[in-house]
Amino acid sequence: MKAVQEKNRVIATLLAFAVIPMSGLATDIYLPSMPYMAKYFGQAENSIQLTLSLYLGSYAIAQFFVGSILDAFGRYKLSTLSLFLFMVSFWITAISTDIYMIYAMRVVQGILSAFAIVAKRAFFVDVYEGEERRQYLSLMTIVWSAGPIVAPFIGGYLQEHFGWQSNFYLLAVYSGVIGVLEFLFSGETIRKKTAFNGRNLLGNFKEMIATPDFFLGLLVVGLSYGMIFLFNLSAPFIIEHQLGYTPVTVGYASLIMGIAWMLGGFLGRALMNKPFLPKIQLASLLQTTLILAMYISSQWLQNLYTLLVFAFFIHLAAGFTFNNYFTYCLSRFPKIAGVSGGFTGGVAFILTSGLSYGVVNMLHPATQPDLALGYFSMGTFVMLLLTTVRIGKLHPSVS
């Protein structure tokens, strides 16, 4: 077993941070290309939107099992292999002319993402302890936000100059380069492997799901990130079709939303030592107020600027809430870091995928008021959950 060497610890940590944004890059880089992909494949908009939901769904489901596999067989070999398979799958996606092959590759990419990302989440729990671990996990959440920030911005220019396929060629190159560096400089971090046992795995799942504060956190995390994907699924069609802008504009819009999400993460990290529930409940109240203002004002004023201003602050609040609760959930069960990390991501992304795609198919958001209604359905649910916490005292450890 090739253990990570102390002299390479800094490099291995930087590589872990480089892998973490992969899930965001794989989901968001082709957002500006969605309308063009629909035309290229001769498909309806929701058929292309399904490629995103398939990725998220497979990524989520795989995480239930990936964590225990990584705890049993180690992090290093499996995460490195997944990066090289990533490269192959993105290349196949780029050259495909069949939408069903795209669907298949997106499912494969979701599974590979689970191996790579869960392994790197566990890396920080394996290597660091105490307050240092908490700081790294919070920073990891912020770095993870970099993917959705830069991906659509890059994707808009790639679409404008080279077409939708160039998005996946770039992802293939990125995966290959990181895979080579990972192979050379990283290593195994798990201290004690745990034999894979289906009964124990189910027992761990039951323990986690029966822990009220942890389960509540999963719901809040899924809903908060679901708002981001609601925008990702809707905005390219609203901005390009209704408002008449180009894919580059979609890229800039997504960049602005990514900055909002990251600022929310930084704010969450800066206020980490403040009382947990009061700050989350205040953020939720402010977010719901902004959503109502967005819907009401859109009855007489709708343009790109009002769309982005309201969405910016809604996403900032979502990023703040996500950062706090995701960090909390990841550190809740340190003795089974791989399993708990996988379970946290799995449940959260199933909720994210199902809720965002469900709202899109129910509302078919093509205008700013439609998007506001989608935000409202998720934002009010978060506020109701947090009200339940206050009433039911489900969160004694951080209230």
From TrEMBL:
Record's subcellular location: Membrane
Key word Transferase present: no
Q: Which UniProt keywords apply?
A: Membrane, Transmembrane, Transmembrane helix, Transport
- The residues forming the signal peptide are none
Q: What sections of the protein cross the membrane? A: 50-70, 82-101, 107-124, 136-155, 167-185, 214-239, 245-268, 280-298, 304-326, 338-360, 372-392
A matching Pfam family: MFS_1
> So which domain of life are we looking at?
Bacteria
Its chief place of residence is membrane
Bilayer topology annotation: Multi-pass membrane protein
Where's the Major facilitator superfamily (MFS) profile domain? 12-395
Q: What is this protein called?
A: MFS transporter
